Amino acid sequence: METRINDFIRAEFGKSLDNFQRMAADDGLREQIGQAVAICVGALREGRKILFAGNGGSAADAQHWAGELVSRFYYDRPGLPAIALTTDTSILTAIGNDYGYDYTFARQIEALGQKGDVFVAISTSGRSKNILRALDACEEKGVRVIGFTGATGGDMVDRCEVCFRVPSTETPRIQEGHEFIGHLLCALIESEVFPK
Predict the structure, then answer these.
(1) Span 8-55, pLDDT tens digits
(2) Per CATH, which fold does 28-193 belong to?
(3) Burial of 75 (0-12, 13-18, 19+ CB in 10 A)
(4) Looking at the whole model, is its pTM more than 0.90?
(5) Is 58 annotated as a binding residue?
(6) What are phi and psi for residue 189, nearest 5 degrees?
(7) Which residues have C-beta within 8 Å of that of residue 149, sequence separation ≥ 6?
(8) Residue 183 labeled ligand binder
(9) Residue 57 counted as an annotated binding residue
(10) Residue 178 assigned to a binding site
């Protein structure tokens, strides 16, 4: 049993390292990160906000990144306006009950989104129906979209101004890549809006 566990651990480390090495070597990814930072910083400087949403582990990422912006990342500075659309159980259950689960994020964007806001849409498959409906609402409201998906991009890739496609088809590897890119965005947004 111990050998099997050790082999599994080594294999998982290997897959994660390979994933990050491919990301690190991707010049296009670095360009996309710069584009996403510029979109977010531009919106914040215009008095707009950043909205985040995802399902499951991606919902945790949405809450995590919103918290990093509202509170702080590397250092103390004024809070930045960011909202995770995954946190209000009364809103989520009301929308799910009245309109269906597919509308959980779209309805919130209809209510809270303003032209020039940024929506960070997180779906490892790129096919989450409630994320895709949220993209419909973004188009109607003039909300800009930054997407986080896996290698294929699913149905999101052509609907996002910037779409981060982590080069894996395994959900854990995609989520690890998302977390790293999300941290880069938070750090760079913080340092651009409030230079130390």
Answers:
(1) 999 999 999 999 999 999 999 999 999 999 999 999 999 999 999 999
(2) Rossmann fold (3.40.50)
(3) exposed
(4) yes
(5) no
(6) -60, -45
(7) 123, 124, 125, 126, 156, 157, 163, 164, 165, 166, 174
(8) yes
(9) yes
(10) no
Can you read off the two tokens belonging to residue 50? 């950043």
Q: Could you give phi then psi for residue 121, rounded to 5 degrees?
A: -100, 120
Is 175 annotated in some ligand binding site?
yes
For helices 171-193 and 27-45, the axis angle rounded to 10 degrees is 50
12 among annotated binding-site residues: no
Token couple for 93: 């259950």
Mean pLDDT of 149-154: 97
**191 carries a ligand binding annotation:** no
Residue pLDDT, tens place only, 64-111: 999 999 999 999 999 999 999 999 999 999 999 999 999 999 999 999
Separation between Cα atoms, residue 160 and residue 126, nearest integer Å = 11
Dist. CA 112–CA 89, nearest whole Å: 16
Per-residue tokens: 85:
């659309």
Q: What residue segments make up the domains of the chain, in order of their start?
A: 28-193
Query: Any known ligand binding at 19?
Result: no
CB 172 within 8 A of CB 46: no
To which H or E segment does residue 35 belong? Answer: helix 27-45
Name the token pair of 174.
């995609």
DSSP 73-122: SSS------EEETT--HHHHHHHHHHT-GGGTTHHHHHHH--TT-EEEEE
